[in-house]
Amino acid sequence: MFGWNHDATVPRMSFRTKIFLSITATVVFAVWIVAGVVSTTVTKSFERREAQRTANLVSQFRREFDRRGGDVVRRIEAIANSDAVLRIGVNLGTPQADTAQFNSEAQTLAREQSLDFLELVGPDGGIISSAEWPARFGYKEDWLTQPVDWKTQGIFLRREELADGAVLGLITVRTVKAGDGQLYIAGGQRLDKEFLDSLPATEGLRLQLYSNFDPQPSTAAATLIQELRSQPRELTRSTSDATITAIPLFGRDHELLAILLIENSRAQLASLKAYIQGTALIVGFAGILLGLALSFWTASRVTRPLRQLASSVREVSSGKWETRASVASTDEVGQLAQDFNRMTEQLVEQRDRMIQAERVAAWRELARRLAHELKNPLFPLQLTIENLQRARQVSPEQFDEVFRESTSTLLAELDHLKTIVGRFSDFAKMPAPQVEPVNLNQIVDDVVKLFEAQINAPGRPRVETILHLAEHLALVSADPDQIRRALRNLVLNALDAMPHGGVLTIRTQNLDGKVTLEVSDSGEGLTPEECERLFTPYYTTKQHGTGLGLAIVQSVVSDHKGTISVQSEPGKGTTFRIELKA
Amino acid sequence: MKRPCWALLALSSFLICPLTSATRPRYGGTLTVDLTSTWIVFSEIEALTPLIVETLVRINERGDPEPNLAVAWQHDADRKRWRFSLKPKVTFHDGEPLNATAAAPALLAALKKRYGDVRVTAGGQTVVIQSERAMPDLLSELARPATAVFRQTEKLPLVGTGPFRVTNWEPGRRLTLSAFDDYWNGHAFLDSVIVNLGSSRTSADVFDIPFSPARRILPERTRVWSSAARELIALQTAGIDPQLARALALSIDRGPMVNVLTQRKGEAAFGLLPQWLSGYAFLFTATPDVAHARQMLSQLRLSPLTLSYPPNDSFARSVADRVALNARDAGMNLQPTPSLNGNIRLVRWKLESRDAANELTRFFAMLGLPERPDSLYDAERAVLEEGRLIPLLYLPAVYGIGPRVHGWDAAQKHDPFVLHLENVWVEP
User: Fold this and answer.
1) Which residues contact residue A332 at a Cβ distance below 8 angstroms, ignoring those fewer than 6 apart?
2) Complex ipTM tops 0.90
3) B chain contacts of residue A135, beta-carbon cutoff 8 Å
4) A35 in helix, strand or coil?
5) Where does A431-581 sit in CATH, by number?
6) What does CATH list as the number for B226-398?
7) Domain boundaries in chain A?
């Protein structure tokens, strides 16, 4: 359907493939561009929305922080003004001050005011009563006794130590006069998950509060927290799963106490992107299918007539000269088909004319050859007969002797004529080969033995015969008589080419599933022009040849589906090479 | 005398009259006592049983045995055979006279628990107690309320010879006592005593005040009375490294516990027996040394330990929390937990008698130690040095005494185990 047409080593892409690839590439590229633009736009829009949602949540957190803080301040002030605290203050102002009796007071007051933390601390900083850690009575809270005007202090974040660890608290402090000193009321509420849960929930948005004194979390935010610890400022980092904004929360002395982590889930964006990618993939795939369909349709519209035209060309080239391309349209392709048909018709006409001309030429050549061949014996016949007539008229007494000599001459020439006619007859009636497995080495041996006597005849210039025969030569399917005849002609031709002696080399070998037979001489060689015409019937370079020898060889080789070629250079001898399928 | 002087004398007489009438004992009236405990078994009300039943011997303020139902006693050289002569003309609440035959069954049952193969034989007013082994502490044993002489009838769970007799018993709720008119030592001031169990109303004449982290508001004029120390709070550290136990002991500051958690009613404990019982407890005093404790702990491999305290005991929890806090200062991680089997256990040990040797023997039994032949001090010091126990606090029994109640302090006779109500009287 689609693919590359291999001609030798150069790949060629079919027209249909080109159309398919063009359409597919266009659609896919367009889809990729559109998907990319849409994805980028969506991402930017999502990030804008993320930033807006984060800002809103931070604002809500701050509002809730202030609201809770105000609430805590009011509660602590209510405690500071309570009778219980005033009583403690009065007690502390007496010389017999006994704070032990107030040990459980903070728990009661904290419970009444719904506070998570409450400590009543004496003027010396010693804890009188602690709601969050009752066992800490007597321990010092020196930070409270520092010179601070607590009445002007609002709410602040503070790390609160508890028996089971530290927690984060929204704390405020108020004081009550206790004799010459102050009774400190420090309390507040936890800043924890419950606080975060009180904020309005937003889908896809998650709030986390990381206390700076907690162990390093092993979450995705760990790096962000580490970074923020070294440089306390608002930071935002994005991962494939979420965008995390970290906001530092400081204590009263600007120490980093906690980090508010706002995690914007990117699941929705990822889902949207996946949808876009999925859609793009579907559209791209649809584009490929469209390209496939369009390429088929276009091929059927464009390449079918071309393929038909190409088929017609192939048929014409194979010899079916009557083939015509169908003309189904009037466009360029139709015009091309018409031109092709016209060209084919002209070629047929020219071919016919050439055949006619060649036939005439062949007859002329045949006539010339026949005339040439027959003229030689006919001339002695004419002279002999005229000699007989003259002998009868001039010297009848010698007529008998002349008659005997003349009739023997006539018979010899007639034999010669017969031979000539026989050769032409042989060429004319070349039989179909009777194939059988044949060992060419055997045939070479036979032919060389046949020519041994001629080669070694006394007085003949020395011709050295060299045989290079492959040991395990493959058998070929061939008619042994015809192959033997062809080889005889080649050997004879080689001997004729070496009138002054030389080297005759016969070589057989296996080559790529074929068997080659080479016959080389060391004669004068041939010119390229001679090589081209060498196998033409009745062409000969010899004085007495009929020009049929090599034509017969070529005919035999051709009948065996083999090939014959010649390599020759003037002065370097000639090599005939026959290739037959093994 | 000038007129103003007469006026002053009249005024002073007017002021003094109510005062003198208030200080003079008065017969009659009912005393209400609220106790937080909810006893169901009558015999467990040890603080009140001496009002109903009496022992042959009692321990005086100096810790020496003195006659009670027994007027005299002799023993052989080995102290294996004891002979007691019972007080004559003593009757049980049901009118039965006290004689050796009536006293023997209760004595035998109680003494068998202590001495095993003991035999009690009765003859007239003479009770002979003998055993195969020596009973050097028999007098102390006989002074315990558990070894009192009593009888049980179908109608009453406990019939004794004490100043009060049981008139009503509702297990777990109420006990009503009436003064025993034929009491050998004279009629009590009170006509009756109503004991409400599982209740601690501050409106009662007498109510117990358990140690609790929560501050209790008392009505005006109600005063607080506490007995001598009768309970020890300690850390049992048998399961941990002795070096760790010593570091823990050094880290604990008992002063704030005494001042705040016990509201100064308790005492810092450094020995097993309180000073009033042993007489040598002051020798064990020590001061906290957190720095030294931290240094000792730095040489040990520390892992978190649990400090268990009795479940549902808020006071024990407060003490455990404080101990954990002190330990934390020294670098030790103790996790208080309400259970009975932590790495370290906070235990509350109630004393039962005024016999130091007897109490120490019980301590050794509780710790799984054999009795020591040493002197009490040496034995106690050896146990403390082994690091098996870290004493923390001695606690007394604390009661709220209403303004109607008089003669309370004098009546208690420095006995931390018993509420002596026979000499208490109330205003109408």
Assistant:
1) none
2) no
3) 318, 321-322, 324-325
4) helix
5) 3.30.565.10
6) 3.10.105.10
7) 81-195, 203-265, 332-427, 431-581
